[in-house]
Amino acid sequence: MTQKIAILPGDGIGPEIIAEAVKVLHALNLDLQLETAPVGGAGYEAAGHPLPPATLKLAQESDAILFGAVGDWKYDTLERALRPEQAILGLRKALGLFANFRPAICYEQLVNASSLKPELVSGLDILIIRELTGDIYFGQPRGRRTAEDGHFPGAEEAFDTMRYSRPEIERIAHVAFQAAQKRSKRVTSVDKANVLETFQLWKDVMTEVGQQYPDVQLDHMYVDNAAMQLVRAPKRFDVVVTGNMFGDILSDEASMLTGSIGMLPSASLNDKKQGLYEPSHGSAPDIAGQGIANPLATILSAAMMLRFSLGHEAAAQRIEAAVQKVLAQGLRTADIYSEGTTKVSTAQMGDAVVAAL
Ligand code: NAD
């Protein structure tokens, strides 16, 4: 049966990097129907909204979404609801994309690009699983008011609410344990149970769900310690599962261990395995239109899409092997270039991956 993919290039380098991922998808000769729609600033220009109704409809009807990036400084003066970044929040909410996968893989050829010593990151392969639709980012009530108590009664204060329900924790726990079963069978659950009720429940539920996966080893770590361990001994981790806010911070920390933001894919899935796949980086307006952006994070996002939403594991592996091969050939876009390698453009990198397939 034909599988439908919504292609949402977005802004900045989005269209350039998506074009290369689309080339790769075409080269695989799978039964895929690709349909493109504007999103972010491009959505605002085309239809007055960062997530136009037609784009949302296409996303909802598709098996998966391949997303470039959104955002440009020129939209910073728009009211918040019309800013490009709202498109991502809108898609997460409308599709119930609660499980965010952020692999941090250090490619052997790029080991010197990391800010850590090569021996600490060589062979690094961590998967951070971040809960994406709960926690303090979405908890109600929130707002501003006049303080009635605390250290400064009568002063203006702002407040947010951190909350997680048992089913929310259970479903992300299952995602993490099942992901670990396909890897080295270790999960680290990151919390702040020593201080926060929300994360005591998190820890309790993780432990309970863990009992259903006796083949997976579970350990718990406080978030402050996890932040330290990620730069001290990152290879001690395999699958890391955590809440929305801690995951936001730790996944960026982990991605930078690999030294190359242009290399890292990501996936956000719902309980029907429908997913949004995008590079971990933004729209890079500073280099847009120059043909120098690294398309590999987007190409690797397409591989994740084939694996997690479309059931094409062999094709996903072919893409990943092709990326390894072009790196081994010494081909580099400007962001990962070093002396002795060959600098290529965005399109040349895409062509090289297709050739390596
Ligand atoms: P960014 O990730 O866009 O760029 C950070 C730096 O990394 C820049 O110097 C950029 O040139 C470089 N870079 C990023 N991707 C690259 C690639 N593929 N190849 C080579 N170099 C690359 O982050 P930023 O500058 O903080 O944000 C720019 C815009 O992107 C903002 O409007 C922001 O809101 C938006 N943004 C969007 C997303 C998303 O769409 N999911 C995520 C983060 C930021």
TrEMBL record:
<feature type="binding site">
    <location>
        <position position="252"/>
    </location>
    <ligand>
        <name>Mg(2+)</name>
    </ligand>
</feature>
<dbReference type="GO" id="GO:0051287">
    <property type="term" value="F:NAD binding"/>
</dbReference>
<dbReference type="InterPro" id="IPR004429">
    <property type="entry name" value="Isopropylmalate_DH"/>
</dbReference>
<dbReference type="InterPro" id="IPR024084">
    <property type="entry name" value="IsoPropMal-DH-like_dom"/>
</dbReference>
<feature type="site" description="Important for catalysis">
    <location>
        <position position="137"/>
    </location>
</feature>
<keyword id="KW-0100">Branched-chain amino acid biosynthesis</keyword>
<comment type="function">
    <text>Catalyzes the oxidation of 3-carboxy-2-hydroxy-4-methylpentanoate (3-isopropylmalate) to 3-carboxy-4-methyl-2-oxopentanoate. The product decarboxylates to 4-methyl-2 oxopentanoate.</text>
</comment>
<comment type="subunit">
    <text>Homodimer.</text>
</comment>
<dbReference type="GO" id="GO:0000287">
    <property type="term" value="F:magnesium ion binding"/>
</dbReference>
<comment type="similarity">
    <text>Belongs to the isocitrate and isopropylmalate dehydrogenases family. LeuB type 1 subfamily.</text>
</comment>
<keyword id="KW-0028">Amino-acid biosynthesis</keyword>
<keyword id="KW-0479">Metal-binding</keyword>
<dbReference type="GO" id="GO:0003862">
    <property type="term" value="F:3-isopropylmalate dehydrogenase activity"/>
</dbReference>
<dbReference type="GO" id="GO:0005829">
    <property type="term" value="C:cytosol"/>
</dbReference>
<keyword id="KW-0464">Manganese</keyword>
<feature type="binding site">
    <location>
        <position position="224"/>
    </location>
    <ligand>
        <name>Mg(2+)</name>
    </ligand>
</feature>
<keyword id="KW-0460">Magnesium</keyword>
<comment type="pathway">
    <text>Amino-acid biosynthesis; L-leucine biosynthesis; L-leucine from 3-methyl-2-oxobutanoate: step 3/4.</text>
</comment>
<feature type="binding site">
    <location>
        <position position="92"/>
    </location>
    <ligand>
        <name>substrate</name>
    </ligand>
</feature>
<dbReference type="Pfam" id="PF00180">
    <property type="entry name" value="Iso_dh"/>
</dbReference>
<feature type="binding site">
    <location>
        <position position="248"/>
    </location>
    <ligand>
        <name>Mg(2+)</name>
    </ligand>
</feature>
<keyword id="KW-0520">NAD</keyword>
<keyword id="KW-0560">Oxidoreductase</keyword>
<feature type="binding site">
    <location>
        <position position="102"/>
    </location>
    <ligand>
        <name>substrate</name>
    </ligand>
</feature>
<protein>
    <recommendedName>
        <fullName>3-isopropylmalate dehydrogenase</fullName>
        <ecNumber>1.1.1.85</ecNumber>
    </recommendedName>
</protein>
<feature type="domain" description="Isopropylmalate dehydrogenase-like">
    <location>
        <begin position="4"/>
        <end position="353"/>
    </location>
</feature>
<feature type="binding site">
    <location>
        <position position="130"/>
    </location>
    <ligand>
        <name>substrate</name>
    </ligand>
</feature>
<keyword id="KW-0963">Cytoplasm</keyword>
<dbReference type="GO" id="GO:0009098">
    <property type="term" value="P:L-leucine biosynthetic process"/>
</dbReference>
<feature type="binding site">
    <location>
        <position position="224"/>
    </location>
    <ligand>
        <name>substrate</name>
    </ligand>
</feature>
<keyword id="KW-0432">Leucine biosynthesis</keyword>
<dbReference type="InterPro" id="IPR019818">
    <property type="entry name" value="IsoCit/isopropylmalate_DH_CS"/>
</dbReference>
<feature type="site" description="Important for catalysis">
    <location>
        <position position="192"/>
    </location>
</feature>
<feature type="binding site">
    <location>
        <begin position="282"/>
        <end position="294"/>
    </location>
    <ligand>
        <name>NAD(+)</name>
    </ligand>
</feature>
